[in-house]
Specification:
Structural class: alpha+beta
Number of helices: 3
Order of helices and strands: HHHEE
Number of strands: 2
Number of domains: 1
Mean pLDDT: 82
Strand order of the largest sheet: 1-2
Helix content: 25-40%
Strand content: 5-15%
Radius of gyration: 17 Å
Length: 107
Amino acid sequence: MALADAGIKTMQLPFRSPNLNAYVERLIQSIEVECLDHFIVLGTRHLDHLLSEYIAYHNRERPHMALEFATPMGRPPPARAGPFSPREVRCRERLGGVLRHYYRKAA
């Protein structure tokens, strides 16, 4: 009911669908290894903050091999336009530097 109130459309999954388990288990493993293993969770608000930062990183900044190194909610990676200097590279940090995203400075 809370999902419908937020405007999220739910989708009924097939009964006993083992192929979906692998995707969920891999996402949970990524969250544990890349995020939660680095923190002592102090409560539900802290856990919510950690998870929301990780999901934002995962969907907007982290390249996915299955999407040809694009991000699910972002733009595709730019085509390489020749050599660039290290001064053009920027770093965006989340969760105190645990999650880092490097990108080229816009021209």
